[in-house]
Amino acid sequence: MSITEQTELVVPAQEHAAPKWAAVVADRMAPMPRRRLRARDILHQAGAPDGAVLVRDLNSPIDVGFAPDAMVDLAEGNVFRLVHGCQADEIGARGAAPKLAFVVDDAWEVTIEPRQTAESLRGLFDLGEDVELVRDYESPDDEPVGEATEVFFRDGPVFRTRKRSVTIKVNRNDVKMPRRRTTGLEIKQAAINQGVKIQLDFLLYHIVDGEQVRIPDDKQLTLRECDEFRCVAPDDNS
Fold first, then answer.
1. 165-224 per-position pLDDT tens digit
2. pTM as predicted
3. What is the C-alpha radius of gyration for the chain, rounded to an integer number of angstroms?
4. Are residues 143 and 122 in contact, defined by beta-carbon separation less than 8 angstroms?
């Protein structure tokens, strides 16, 4: 295990809200404020005892330790163990894959594969088909992840889940949609299948703050729970 003395890292400019990060230290998950921070700060946030040395856990018998002031990039591996200072004199393993902890709904699972998909993470965490995976950002605007979309650890390992289905109202009738991302035509089809007395050639309007916004059949929109819609015949001017 080598002690890393690096103290400077260039942080690329963020074009949007930063993803959330977390570290698993001595088998305990601790949220971290950002992707890059000093070893001593990781130790403090993880509640490590005084004198402990932070050691990145590799898929190898020999791991890599960090001096207290060393900058640690969690994207290069966020699974760590702790040793006492007198043990921190081994030679670091070169080329060994770091252990990576993905986090979903505050639970974590370890892998050495940095490239995943929503489908593979669903299998890793044994998630049901009734929820969708969302990458967790330091903002209200989180990012849904498509089932086949590639998910890279370096882009942020923290996710949450939310219900895949959503219930809306069409002409004051509850309509359950199987997913949030949909089209105007799919809303009408779902409403008809669930007994709402409309037809496919009716006009669909989204009611937003008391105003009616026309939704064409091919319009893509993301639904929210309890969204309201009005669907009327083309000649209905009421």
1. 889 999 999 999 988 889 999 999 999 999 999 999 999 999 999 999 999 999 999 888
2. 0.67
3. 24
4. no
